[in-house]
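Posting this for the archive.
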Amino acid sequence: MINRGVLIVRPKGPFLEWAAGLDDSGILPSVEGEQTVYLIPQFESDDEAQGILAQLHAEVFERELWGWHTDESAWPPRRDLATFRKWFSIELHSVVEDLCDHAIIDDEDG
């Protein structure tokens, strides 16, 4: 077990409506498809998890928006925690097992 928790977010109605309004392609994010898994600080209680979510929601919100549309001027101006909760279903998991025998490498490190 590693000293991390996991956050998974899935788009809900408001995100899907925003994505649909960007163009007329009819292509929308998948609600049940593969999602980005965010490693977050470990937590031992729901209160701790909610505190971490309060700290990280803005970055996750922006990463999800960027993943769908990179023009920031088209992003919703309100990206507070309440809006985040309306736009995404949230899964928080406190147990993360690393079954690999090699080091974790961050692609952003070069």
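Residues 4-98 form one domain. The mean pLDDT is 93.
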